[in-house]
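Researcher: Sequence recovery benchmark, item below. Answer with residues only.
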């Protein structure tokens, strides 16, 4: 399974994008502000992960008390998940999923996250490799 986040709107305090699954649009994404970590410092809980390709596993999140997609080997970051949330304040570097129906916010996030989790869980159970590519304009 190939996931891709296309970052489309890089704002002062958040980033809106689109999540594709195997080249088909699935939902919108919301992340923290994109920073060039070669030129500026990471700000904890206010910085999006670097663009790149990462392996994804579906496993237990103690913070959320359930299984969630987890990105592995993200430079400068630990514990990066794909999970529900409404604003960048819910992110802490993670990727939030849902519908971008208001400026800087997501709606239907838990529902969207649950649908994504099922797809990723099914792929993992079938031994399918799962990756996510983060791309910027």
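Model:
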């Amino acid at each position: 399974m190939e996931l891709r986040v296309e970052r489309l709107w890089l704002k002062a305090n958040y980033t809106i994008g689109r999540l594709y699954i195997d080249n088909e649009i699935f939902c919108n994404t919301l992340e923290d502000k994109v920073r060039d970590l070669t030129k500026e410092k990471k700000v904890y809980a206010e910085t999006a992960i670097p663009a790149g390709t990462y392996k994804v596993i579906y496993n237990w999140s103690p913070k959320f008390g359930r299984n969630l997609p987890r990105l592995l080997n993200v430079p400068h970051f630990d514990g990066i998940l794909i999970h529900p949330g409404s604003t960048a304040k819910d992110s802490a570097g993670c990727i939030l999923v849902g519908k971008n129906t208001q400026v800087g916010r997501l709606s239907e996030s838990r529902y969207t996250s649950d649908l994504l989790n099922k797809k990723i869980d099914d792929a993992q159970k079938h031994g399918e490799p799962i990756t996510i590519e983060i791309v910027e304009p």
